[in-house]
Amino acid sequence: MTIRRRHPLPFAADPGRRFVPWLIALVVFLAALALAGLMVLADASAKWDRGLVGVLTVQVPDTARADAAGRAAQAKRVEAAVRTLRSTQGVASVRALDAKETAALLEPWLGDGAYVASLPLPSLIDVRLDAGTRVNITGLTGLLSSEVPGTTVDDHRRWTDRLVTILRAIEALAAAVVALVALAAVGTIVFATRSALAVHAETIELLHIIGAPDGAIGSAFARQALWLGLKGGLIGLIGAVIAGAGIAVAFARLPAGLLPAVTLTPIEAVTLALVPLTVAAIAAVTARMTVLSSLKRML
Amino acid sequence: MHESVVRFENVGMRYGVGAEILHDIRFELAPGSFHFLTGPSGAGKSSLLRLVYLAHRPSRGLIHIFGHDIATAPRDRLPLLRRRIGVVFQEFRLLDSLTVFENVALPLRIAGIDAEEIERHASELLEWVGLGGQMKAKPSTLSGGQKQRVAIARAVINRPSLLVADEPTGNVDDDIAVRLLYLFEELNRHGTTILIATHNDSLVARFEHPELHLLDGELTLKPRRPGPPGARQAPSGRTLQDEAP
After folding, report:
1. Same domain as A179, residue A283
2. Shortest distance, CA B140 to any CA of chain A (angstroms)
3. Partners of residue A214 in chain B, C-beta under 8 Å
4. B79 part of a folded domain
């Protein structure tokens, strides 16, 4: 005869055993996605907030002369600006856009009519900075203007500032979602534990009378909740990873620009992996506290 | 002088905000004593037993169990006191999810006894109550008498200092009831204090033990009454499985 270490509390018969893992899976799915979104947005907004987009657009005003001499003079002005930019520290690449490319940028607003070529459009220079480099825009503008009068430098700060404000609001919302789903997890476990307590009331009282310490009964419920939490949490995390990967692929297909890259640092990935563990731990602690508070009402 | 195993002083009890069902209960159980708790159905016998086996808090008064005032004893001390009390419930309260063996072994598991010892004790005890062949059976497959023996085995496996039984003869015929009482007497001879709630007057009359009589929530002590001739002639050393179904 061998003793089986089967627990006297028959958790297998619990009504919540089936639905709790799915509720926790949903909670973890939402929490993981919200947290991943929060981390991606935080990275992007921090980057924009620091003015480290890494892209500058330099505008060299047209000479307003449409003849060949005018075009040659403009080309020289652009060349001078490009030269100055290339000698500037922190600049990774400089590329002057030709007239066709400039016209293509304006096409959404001005159409593709031949008259666009006759407009005195400024020449555009696309400047990419070294990663993490901050350039003194005022100084650079002054330097360029001294070489090519009228030249302006746009670091897109005007609209990235607005974007950062919006992103900060979305971040706060995502943080609130994470907090709310944590509360939902607690509520789910309290409800499930109370149901289980009601189902096992007689067995719990018997164990209590036989001399089981409160902690032992509480731990049994905590282990059960931990197991259900881990099971549900894993399902939820897998779902969130699949959904997140889908979003990352969709973002990657968009033209490169200022959209945030959906990538996570190793620390962020570990943080995300901790979500189901945290939810399972919350579930275990909640179950234990619920049981202990219920047992305290007995002698 | 030995300390009382159980001492109640002016104990009152009510459930929730309901009317008081036990009033000013006072009694003592000396170590090694044997008492019947009698009274009509609804007199409060089960409630009084619940107080004795520490399942319920009194509304007022003092309860001392093994010399500990349960109102002031630290909460983590109470499980240790409960482990010294064996309880046979009227409706057995066996756990259907566990086997007969696991049910009987439960108090030892809870007390943290090592697996080898649990196995030896539980097997021996189940053999002794005549259920050695049904260790792996589930309680739901047993007869009433067999369940009763499992419940008794569970109550006595950790050699309790106090055995409390609530209508242990309620589900069996008179013959088996008498044999059960012999078993309890045998335990009593080994030093266990016994308190048995019953409303079976003929059984009480047959055994010469003092009687705590409960009527309308009030307790009176009736002295030991002599049993009918031949009532105490159970052969010593006979065990429950010799005669139980």
Report:
1. yes
2. 15
3. 75, 79
4. no
Structure tokens at A71: 């075009």
- SS3 at position B73: coil
- What domain range is B112 assigned to? 93-158
A131 inside 8 A of chain B by CB = no
Q: How many domains does chain B have?
A: 1
The number of domains in chain A is 2
Quote the domain boundaries for residue A147: 55-155
Give this prediction's pTM. 0.71
Shortest distance, CA B98 to any CA of chain A (angstroms): 7
| Residue pLDDT tens, chain B, 245 long | 568 999 999 999 999 889 999 999 999 999 999 999 999 988 999 999 999 999 999 999 999 999 999 999 999 999 999 999 999 998 899 999 899 999 999 999 999 999 999 999 999 999 988 899 999 999 999 988 889 889 999 999 999 999 999 988 877 777 878 888 888 999 999 999 999 999 888 889 888 899 999 998 999 988 766 555 444 433 333 334 444 43
Q: Which residue among A2, A3, A212 places its CB closest to the CB of B79?
A: A212
Closest CB from B70, B78, B110 relative to A210 = B110
* Alpha-helical segments (H) within A200-213: 201-210
